[in-house]
Specification:
The chain has five helices and twelve strands. By secondary structure, the protein is α/β, with parallel strands linked by helices. It folds into two domains: 65 residues, membrane protein fhac (Ubiquitin-like (UB roll)); 125 residues, Rossmann fold.
Length: 257
């Protein structure tokens, strides 16, 4: 069946319909762009959506809260939607006593900063501390209130030293001997300071075997006299040498020969 030709009126109507669709589509696109632009400029206007409250939360034992506030203050600017939460988090976590910081917006006008403080488990050298993961951090100055074991070693060996400290502490605990300090020197030799300031020289190899030698000899040789010990050198194949504290005698003390 032959296709009927459209009349001029039908052609005009069809053309109008196509134009209406095109115009409608353009209008919708322009409206969408306008809404996006208005939203962008509106949300970025700090006077339209200002920050009214900045909350800083955390258990602050050693972290100076004023130092924290001073560090983040230059970055707490702009409005609710434009404040740079990543920059605030980074600046906060650069402070030595800050282990972790989280920053989030709370509608309608609050910025909440949650701080997790570092937990020092040992002093590291003369200027820093170690946290429970063996990560070093270095405050401006050490806190004299903290009474911690003093550990030391080459850079990059912090976790190894901390793990050995925990192992040795557990090993010596049955003898009632506390570990006050441990050092891994540049030659990778181990030095252990225990109760009453006694120094145990373990050397570089067979350190567990050497420490066990001290433990085996303790009841017969050292028990009850550890306060008179100065140094025990365990770097021998089958024995050890002992340096005793020099006894201070009173002027009227008689020495019997």
């Amino acid at each position: 069946m032959p296709r009927q030709k459209k009349t001029p009126a039908q052609l005009v109507v069809g053309l109008l319909k196509d134009n209406v669709r095109t115009i409608t589509g353009l209008v919708l696109i322009m409206m969408l762009v306008s809404i996006v632009m208005l939203a962008k400029f509106g949300l970025s206007d700090p006077y339209r959506f200002p920050l009214e409250v900045v909350e800083v939360k955390g258990d602050f034992r050693y972290l100076d809260k004023q130092e924290l506030q001073g560090a983040i203050a230059p970055h707490v600017e702009g409005g609710f939607f434009t404040v740079d939460v990543s920059a605030i988090r980074s600046v906060a976590e650069e402070l030595p006593w800050v282990y972790k910081a989280s920053v989030k917006r709370v509608w309608p006008a609050t910025l909440r900063i949650q701080i997790e403080e570092q937990l020092a488990v040992a002093q590291w050298g003369e200027q820093g501390y170690l946290n429970k993961k063996g990560e070093p951090f270095f405050p401006t100055q050490l806190n004299p209130v903290l009474k911690l074991p003093v550990l030391a070693g080459p850079e990059g060996h912090e976790l190894k030293v901390l793990e050995n400290y925990h192992r040795v502490t557990k090993t010596l605990a049955p003898l009632g001997i506390a570990v006050a300090g441990m050092e891994l020197d540049s030659r990778r030799a181990w030095h252990l300071q225990v109760s009453e300031g006694v120094l145990l020289e373990l050397g570089r190899t067979d350190t567990r075997k050497r420490l066990q030698r001290f433990i085996n000899a303790y009841p017969a040789v050292f028990a009850g006299r550890i306060e008179h010990l100065k140094r025990v050198d365990l770097r021998y194949s089958n024995g050890f040498s002992v340096d005793w504290q020099q006894l201070a005698l009173k002027p009227d003390t008689d020495i019997q020969s």
